[in-house]
Write a structure and sequence with these properties.
Blueprint (H helix, E strand, L loop, with lengths): L2 H14 L12 E16 L2 E12 L8 E9 L3 H4 L6 E6 L7 E6 L2 H19 L1 H26 L4 H21 L3 H28 L7 H8 L7 H34 L5 H30 L1 H8 L6 H6 L1 H32 L4
Antiparallel strand pairs: 1-2, 1-4, 2-3, 4-5
Helix pairs in contact: 3-4, 4-5, 5-6, 5-8, 6-8, 6-12, 8-9, 8-12, 9-12
Amino acid sequence: MGIKRWGQVLLLAIFFLMPMPARAESSYFTGRVTIIFSEGENSDPGFSEKYQRVNVRLNNGPAAGKDEMIEYSTTAGAFEQQKLAVGDTVIVAPDTIGGSGYIILDKLRIPGVLIALAAFFLLAILFAGIRGVTSLFGLAASLGILAFGVVPAIMAGHDALVVSVIGAFSIAIVSILLAHGVNKRSGIALGSTLITLVGAVIFSVVAVMLAKLSGSGTEEAIYLQIGSLPSLNLQGLLLGGMIIGTLGVLDDVTTAQVAAVEEIGIADVSLTRKELYKRGLRVGREHIASLVNTLALAYAGASFPLFLLFALEGGPPLWVVLNAEYVMEEVVRAIVGGASLVIAVPISTFAAAWYFGKKH
């Protein structure tokens, strides 16, 4: 077995030997809807709610196999999309307010998502072969570092920005080497990614300071601070999220650029480093144009309800809405991601051209 394969085996062993965190015993169970007894609507001034009375047969827990009649309610506007049907599996929990019985928390979505995930894995393996398999290992390693490294460290009270930066560097090293193998091409891409990450950290800190963002633009962040993590630095958490979010696209840019430059050099071995850099940069400019647009649309799609706020009649002026922190967070996030892509192209192109290019 060569050095490259031994490197991949070592990385895989490190990932699979990572400790799993202990979980407390759950008070949440699943059940299957067997009967729909009735549907109705409760109307109050300014608010309308629809409900269903259903029979749920519990799948697990101390009352497994028992039937429970439960009233499930949701807002009238979302009722058609969220209402239950016979055969649906739901998540239930003991009714701590009423004192007896159970309440329905939500539909169980995990099995359906697992089917879609399995289809994604199959497509990746089918069309990418061994690279598809190694990329899945890289994805698993990235999620493992986030779940078992970054998140526990932040919850333990460590600075969110410092932890996120260390986590981003770790993810870059492990995921690129696992997905693309231990070779010259992936080594150059990794070095370019790490250099770009340093620039992304500096740029994101400056951008957040200029925009005067505190990190409290989302409900989730506020819940964390008023809950069990009152000392959490929300601004550091925001910066960390920006850096880790940018990393996913950087991997694509640097590996693609290095591969393009190497292939250009193989096609014409007479090219000097300067000529190879120029040709690779022309490819990179097209890559930047498409990826910046893709990145902007990805952030816009994730924040699509914001566009509806802009169109509301009788609301505050557009500049006031745009100035809101929850809007500016997404804008700055897109700016940081776009800037990182732009600087990643010349860095990775130069590194690849210097290594693969022919000397004068």
